[in-house]
Each structure stands twice: as C-alpha cells, then as structure tokens.
Amino acid sequence: MSIGYACLTLGVPFTDMKKCLIKNADEVRLNQLIAANLCALERMVDYNLRNGIKLFRISSDIIPFASSPVNSIRWSEDYAFQLAEIGRKIRTGGMRVSMHPGQYTVLNSPNAQTVENAIRELDYHALFLDSLGLDASHKIILHLGGAYGDKSLAIKRFTERYQALDDRVKARLVIENDDKIYNIQEVLETGLDNRIPVVFDNLHHQANHGGDGGGEQNWIAECAKTWGRDDGRQKIHYSQSNPRKKVGAHSLSIDIDAFLHFYENLALPKPDIMLEVKDKNISAIKCVLCTAEKGEMGALEREWGRYKYLVLEHSQAIYNQIRILLKDKSAYPAVAFYRLVEEAMRIHIPVGGAVNAATHVWGYFKDCASQRQKADFLKYIDGYAKGIVPLFSLKHKLLSLALEHKQTYLLESYYFVKLYSDALTTVDRD
DNA sequence: TGACGTCAAGATCCG
DNA sequence: CGGATCTTGACGTCA
User: Fold this and answer.
1) Structural domains of chain A, ranges and CATH numbers in brackets
2) Signed CA dihedral, A177, A179, A245, A218: sign only
3) Which of A107, A250, A352, A410 makes the best surface tag, with the fewest CB within 10 Å?
4) Could you say which nucleotides of strand B lie within 7 A of any protein CB atom?
5) Which residues contact A31 (CB under 8 A, 6 or more apart)?
6) In 3D, which of A301, A324, A390 has the Cα closest to residue A354?
7) Its pTM surpasses 0.90
C-alpha cells in the first residue's frame, strides 16, 4: 500500500512546471520548457524517494502542448536518455506513477474534433509513460465525459471509442467517478463491461451518489474486482472537503484523524491512495508517517525541522509542547505530533508570534547578510509590527535571503509555503 | 455568454 | 528598474 500526491511538490526549490502561451510556443521555447520540466520531475522523484512517498501523479503539463500541432518536437527521442534515467529511478525506488488528463479531454463527445483531440492527448500520456520505461501498472486516469442529454447513449459512445484506442493506451487507462455526471455505479458498470479498472473517488462520491450499493467501503471493494493482474494494486482517490469553500473543493490539508478513520476501515489488501489536497506532498508525508508499520524517529524529526517556524509563528505554547513530545527518542509519536501541528495551524497568527518566528529565521543570516540586507530586514519587520507591511512580504524577503545564501535547510521549511499564508487572507464562502 | 478549475505566464502598476 | 499585484490562457460542457 502506498500513499501519494498529485503533480506539485511544495516547499522544494526548482520543481515548478514551466509553461508558455500557445502563441509563444516555438521550437526553441518548447525545448527549454521540456528540458526544465524533466529536471523538475527528476527532483520531485528524488524528493519522493527521500521521503518514502511511493505514489505520484505526473503533471500533464510536463510536455507543453504535447498533443497540439504547435509542438512537433520528437521529445521521446530527443530526451530519451533523461526519460529513461527518471524511469529507472522510479522503478528501482519502487515508486508508482500515474497521469490524469484534465477535464477537457472528453472521449465521448459528439464533436469529432474533440474526440480526435482526446485520442491524441491519451496517446501522448501513454507515450510519456512508455518513454519512462514503466509497465502498465503506471496508469492514466480518465473520466467518462459529458452526458449530452442521454447518458446511456453517451456511455455507449465512450465504450466504442475506448475499444478503438491504441492497445498501449488501453493497457494503462483507468476510469473514475466524477462529481457531477457519472457516479460510481455507472462507472463501475462501464468498467466491468469493458474490463477497465475503476478508481473510486470518495469526495466525488459524496457529491454524486450512485445507486444504493452501501457505503464507500463497499464501493471500494466492488472496484477492487476490476483490477487485473497486469494493472497493479487497486488505486483510489481520497480527499476531504474544504468547509470554507463551496462543496467539493479540496481541503487545504488532510485532517489526520479523519484520514486514519477511513484508512483503518479499508479491507485488506489496502489499495494505493492518491491524496487530492492543496498542500500536496506535505499531507502525503503526514499520512505516510502516520501509517508507517515501523516508524523512524529520524523522519519525524526531519518533519519537525520543516514545520517548526510555521508552528512557532502560530503558537509558542504548541511549539514547546512538540519539543517535549519529541524528546523521547525511543518513541514514535507521529499521530500526536500531527495533531499538535494541526491544532497550531487552527490558531490565528498573533503579531508577536510572527515577529518571533521571523526573528528566528533571520538568525540564519545575521552573520552572512550585508549591511544593506540587515537594514532592509529591520525595516520590514518594523513595518510588519506597525501593520504597514504584510506578513507575506516579510517572509518573501527572508525567502530571498535563504535562496541567495543557499540555506537549504530553510528552503525546505513549510514556513515559506505560500499556500498557508494565502489561506489566512482568502475567504471564499459559498 | 459565463462559470467551472488550475497554475504559471504575461501584463500592469508602483515606488 | 525590480518587485508586487492583477489578469489571462487553454481546454469542453452545461446552465
């Protein structure tokens, strides 16, 4: 059983996917982007393996405009060496990857051009995974598509077009219930009829119920039957909703107690679990460490190193509690640790806490920073305390310093993860 | 015709 | 000029 995350790796430098506008997509630009994105992918794979993350979704943006005529680069040949090397790391590390074409890849459309585009897009995804040298257990996930006023006809069109796909695509394709149109019952029927493995998505299921087939654990058990010998372990998608946003929106982070409740109810053998959550790899590590059969204290201490300034700015008291919790090196209090982290994150940042944390982080630079940088920092922290400078501007200054002075420990700190700062200022209530 | 979802690029503003 | 902030793009379906 593996737990993983989708597409983006937060808090790890130089893992961003680069893209461009279609009007700027000439051969030179596209080659730059492909080369940069493959480097980024390799960094993500390295990071995942360092952190025990064995499941990962590769962004469809990895090769920009791959299925469009604007991109005529023979990337699978020109970058064969890099692709093979990344694939070798994935295989030898025991990692499983997947890809998920977006909501605009619609195989069952009545529009012939849309279908042709969808087929090209699926061919691209299969070629990418083939170029990594990975077997058919590394999947491509797709939704059934639109309803067009007649679901059974639309499913029939999906089936016909599925059957006509290239064998290399068919070997990898799996289908998933969506939150609006096709519920798990309909997807499961389609999967059984066509021998296509089915991915159960719990949040889509909440939004779009199917039939009376019992609870989500029953559906997961039914979906298990669609996974054949060459398909690898069953996969599911797990996410929690963000109560501050409209229904169906993914949560900022995974609530560990709710996750463990779900996890413990899973029948054996447990499926691979792809988390769909805003804080991506950060929640993936949380769930990996909290379900580890024999946890290593070192891994927990590395996590604490990444969380500490973030926790400190929210609550000095919880910061102190975690330090005490982690003193006993013979224990492995992963769940207790994450409960405290979550509790800290629910506390609104006090000005004093933010100043305190920023001052701690500044401590890394006080010997190496120039006079100008020092004056700059003092100006920012003073401005923040007076309410003139926003907190994220102060943090941005510190992040620039960390980059310039190559403080790799700080660069991996969750203190700088923009998502957590944004969440404090963004209110999107429905 | 706009909302949907997503992220970074691109555009623009500001000091 | 560099940094901060706002807008656009790329896709297809559906109300």
Assistant:
1) 3-291 (3.20.20.150), 297-428 (no CATH)
2) negative
3) A352
4) 4-10
5) A73, A78
6) A390
7) yes
For A320-356, b/e burial (b = at least 16 CB within 10 A) is ebbeebbeeeeebbbbbbbbbbbebbeeebeeebbbb
Is the pLDDT at A427 greater than 60? The verdict is: no
Say whether the peptide bond before residue A269 is cis (omega within 30 degrees of 0).
yes
Averaged pLDDT for residues A302-323: 97
Q: At CB < 8 A and 24+ separation, what contacts does A150-158 make? A: A151/A181, A151/A182, A151/A186, A154/A108, A155/A108, A155/A182, A155/A186, A155/A190, A157/A108, A157/A110, A158/A107, A158/A108, A158/A190
Q: Are A355 and A309 in contact (CB under 8 A)?
A: no
Is residue A144 within 8 Å of residue A191, measured between CB atoms? no
A212, pLDDT greater than 80: no
DSSP bridge pairs for A142: A175
The yes-or-no verdict on residue A303 having pLDDT over 80 is: yes
Are β-strands A198-201 and A173-176 bridged in parallel, bridged antiparallel, or unpaired? parallel
Determine the 3-state secondary structure of A5 from DSSP: strand
From the list A306, A360, A316, the residue with the least C-alpha distance to A338 is A306
Q: How far is the CA of A430 from the C1' of C11 (A)?
A: 25
Residue-level pLDDT at A117: 95
CA of A380 to C1' of C8 (A): 32
- Give the position of tokens 């700190």: A413
A147-203 tens-digit pLDDT: 999 999 999 999 999 999 999 999 999 999 999 999 999 999 999 999 999 999 999
Q: Are A355 and A312 in contact (CB under 8 A)?
A: no
The alpha carbon of A139 is separated from its chain's Cα centroid by a whole number of angstroms, namely: 16
For residue range A341-350, what is the model confidence (pLDDT) as tens digits?
Answer: 999 999 999 9
DSSP letter string, A116-137:
HHHHHHHHHHHHHHHHTT--TT
* Residue A331 CA, nucleotide B6 C1', distance (Å): 41
Single out the residue of A166, A179, A183, A177 nearest to residue A129, CA to CA: A166
Tell me which nucleotides of strand C come within 7 A of a protein CB: 3-5, 9-14
Nucleotide C13 C1' to residue A181 CA (A): 11
The dihedral built from the CA positions of residue A8, A9, A10 and A13, taken in this order, carries a sign that is: negative
Amino acid at A408: T
In DSSP terms, A274 is beta-bridged to A4, A237
Residues in chain A: 430
Helix axes A297-314, A316-325, angle to 10 degrees: 170
